[in-house]
Amino acid sequence: QVQLVESGGGLVQAGGSQGLSCAASGTIFGIKIMGWYRQAPGKQRELVASITANGATNYSDSVKGRFTISGDNAKTTVYLQMNSLKPEDTAVYYCNIRVILPGRNEYWGQGTQVTVSS
Description:
Elements: E1 4-7, E2 10-13, E3 18-24, E4 31-39, E5 46-51, E6 57-59, E7 67-72, E8 77-82, E9 91-101, E10 105-108, E11 112-117
Parallel strand pairs: 2-11
Antiparallel strand pairs: 1-3, 3-8, 4-5, 4-9, 5-6, 7-8, 9-10, 9-11
């Protein structure tokens, strides 16, 4: 079973920057949509950002202009560069990869904690 391995996260001061990385432990063939979700305690899991195989990106309004998602479809890696971090960005961040062609499949990372201090 292919696993998604996340790296990054940790403690960062408000206004600072942090990068998250995610890579599949094996090859995932096909066209993929890759993205990041996050979930804070007591809150619903929400989409942070996603990127299609063609490079089209989508961002939550709460992070637009501050976060940047990028990825390598061939290597099945996805990155999230987080700038101007705010305490409200504190959450567990989850990597997500969805194969849309051929067929359909979905993979989730275990999650990595990002804590932004005031």
